[in-house]
Amino acid sequence: MAKLIALTLLGMGLALFRNHQSSYQTRLNALREVQPVELPNCNLVKGIETGSEDLEILPNGLAFISSYPGIKSFNPNSPGKILLMDLNEEDPTVLELGITGSKFDVSSFNPHGISTFTDEDNAMYLLVVNHPDAKSTVELFKFQEEEKSLLHLKTIRHKLLPNLNDIVAVGPEHFYGTNDHYFLDPYLQSWEMYLGLAWSYVVYYSPSEVRVVAEGFDFANGINISPDGKYVYIAELLAHKIHVYEKHANWTLTPLKSLDFNTLVDNISVDPETGDLWVGCHPNGMKIFFYDSENPPASEVLRIQNILTEEPKVTQVYAENGTVLQGSTVASVYKGKLLIGTVFHKALYCEL
Known about the structure:
The chain is mainly beta and 352 residues long. Helix content is 12%, strand content 45%. Strand 23 and strand 24 (337-342) form a beta hairpin. The longest helix has 26 residues, at 2-27. It starts with a helix and ends with a strand. The relative contact order is 0.16.
């Protein structure tokens, strides 16, 4: 009888493992291969070799890019940096922004998601998710355009910001942020991800108030806001969804709708003129989380038009199998040009 019970428990455990393994592969979209979708004129951005994880383009054409060593770095001993690119130039190149401020440790700078905020005096603030020593902070900088530098003003830490991935600024020190995991311990994070616990969440932060405003995500990732400030968009990476929330005057969020995709959606950029969403995606998550240089992760860019209507239009704008661009995370447009960033690889600049 004892052997029968042990055999039964073993069988149940194996069945449970197989079910989770199958679910894990589905959530990672492990079997998908991309068919190429090309753009007429694309060039790799000179000066970006080890990551362009997130980027934001200002209305004047200046693009801020976070170079984040991240999941895998081809240059592990080098700290991260913020790059500047002027898209008004005929052949734009990148410039590393110097960082001033006596209390900021540049050597441990590991920038991830970024967001900008311009106040009524036209002062521009850059908020940067940072991972010094595998922790999570938000660094507040003021952009000094003439000096082409960033003045560090403040480091933000909070117990509700333990695993920050991306942020969208709604004030100089106010933002919504995604925590992509619930647990802090890497071992527990791996089980959280494998089991699909969907415990990650979104936080609203201000100097006077910090609270969870949305939860129950299977790896909350990119976040952004509509041009009119009425709606917040959240990418749920391993559920292959983008969620639309209504934002209220008290900063709470109410879910409105979700869109499903056959890809892992990462960072979201919003065209300030049209309201279109541009999304950097991972067609096959297995290749991004378990990197193999012989079988590199592909890249994909989606454009979502009329997302608030009953029939949004989704267009696959770009797709490539990793030969040119590995692991796209973000895409944004400016005057008929498309800039695509990656987790730990290069960046691509294309004509649309």
